Amino acid sequence: MSHVEDELTSQPECWTRVAADAAGHGPALPAPGERVAIVGCGTSYFMAQAAAALREGAGQGETDAFAASEFPHGRAYDRVLALTRSGTTTEVLDLLRKVAGGTRTTAVTADPDTPVMEAADDVVVLDYADERSVVQTRFATTALTLLRAHLGLHSDAVVADARTALAEPLPEGLVECGQFTFLGRGWTVGLANEAGLKMREASLSWTEAYPAMEYRHGPISITTEGTATWMLGPAPEGLAEQVRATGGLWVEGGLDPLAELVRAQRLAVAVAAARGLDPDQPRHLTRSVILAS
User: Fold this and answer.
1) Is the distance from CB of 113 to CB of 139 less than 8 angstroms?
2) pLDDT score recorded for residue 70
3) What is the mean pLDDT of each run of 10 residues along the chain (293 residues)?
4) To which H or E segment does residue 258 belong?
5) Confidence at residue 273, expressed as pLDDT on a 0 to 100 scale
C-alpha cells in the first residue's frame, strides 16, 4: 500500500479527533463578525476556498480566500488564517511576516517544528494528520473539518459518509475514462478544484473543475464517451441528463461533499495504479515549495 492510500483511509479517524478537539482550538480561530482572509497554496488554497464559502454562508462574517502569493495587501482584515501542512512554504511565510503587527494571524499546520510556529500569532497543530506522501489528503480534509466543526457544520454523519466512501466500489468504468471533470456549487467549488488537482498530481490525468452552472458555458463541449463528469453536492436541475446525452459518464455525489472528495482521492490512486504510476511521488513535485531568496 502506498503512503497516500494509507493516509486517505485514515481520514474518518482524523475527522473524529479534530471535531472533538475543535472547541479547544476556538480561541485561535476566527470569531463571529471578524473580516477574515483564508490563504494557502495548492491543496490548501482550495480548502481555503471551501472554508471561506462555508463561513460567509453561515453568517459569521465576510470571508475571502486567496492563494498566498496573490493576497491583496491593500485590503483590511481582522485576521489572516493560513493553511500550511509543512509550515515551510515560502509564500505563506512571506505573507504572515508582511502582515505581522497589523493583522492577527493564525496558522493551521501539521508540523510543530517549522518556521510557521514563529511567523503566526496563533497556531493550531494537527500533527496526527501529517503525511509522508507528497500528495495531500488527510491533512487538508482534517483542517477543513476543524473549520466546519468550529462553525457548527460538522456531524457524525459526515464521518459515516467518509467510511462509506472508503468501503464502496468506484463506479464501473470510471477508472478507464480518459478525461475527468469535477463540478461544485458554493463551498464545494473548492472541493471540485481539489479533486481535479488530486487527479493531475497522482495520475497525470486530463482533469478540469468548474462551478456547476459554468460547466454549461463551454466546458461541456469536451464531454463525450470515455469522459466522466462528477458532481460534488446537489446538481443543478437537468445537468445529469445533459451529460448523459453526450455519452459521458455522470457520477452523482450522493454523500457529504467532503466524503465525495475522499472517493475522488481513491479514484486518483486507482488511475495511477492502472497507469503504473507511483502516487506518492508526483512528477516535478515536492512536499513543500521553498523558493530561493
Assistant:
1) no
2) 98
3) 89 98 97 98 97 98 98 97 96 97 97 96 98 92 98 98 98 96 98 97 95 95 97 96 97 96 97 89 58 53
4) helix 257-274
5) 93
Alpha-carbon distance of 12 to 138, in angstroms, equals 9
Q: Which three cell numbers stand for residue 89?
A: 512554504
Question: What's the predicted TM-score (pTM) here?
Answer: 0.95
Give the rounded distance of the alpha carbon of 184 from its chain centre: 12
Alpha-carbon distance of 239 to 213, in angstroms, equals 9
Phi, psi (deg, nearest 5) at residue 15: -65, -40
Q: Cβ contacts of residue 150 below 8 Å, gap of 6+?
A: 22, 25, 26, 29, 30
C-beta neighbour count of 10 within 10 angstroms: 16
The dihedral over CA atoms of 206, 209, 212, 214, expressed in degrees to the nearest 10, equals -90
Who contacts 267 (Cβ-Cβ below 8 Å, separation ≥6)?
170, 174, 175, 180, 199
190 near 42, Cβ under 8 Å?
no
Q: Catalogue all structural domains in the chain, each as residue range(s) with its CATH number.
A: 13-150 (3.40.50.10490), 156-274 (3.40.50.10490)
In whole angstroms, what is the distance from residue 17 CA to residue 25 CA? Answer: 12
Secondary structure of residue 207 in the 3-state scheme: strand
Cell of 161: 459518509
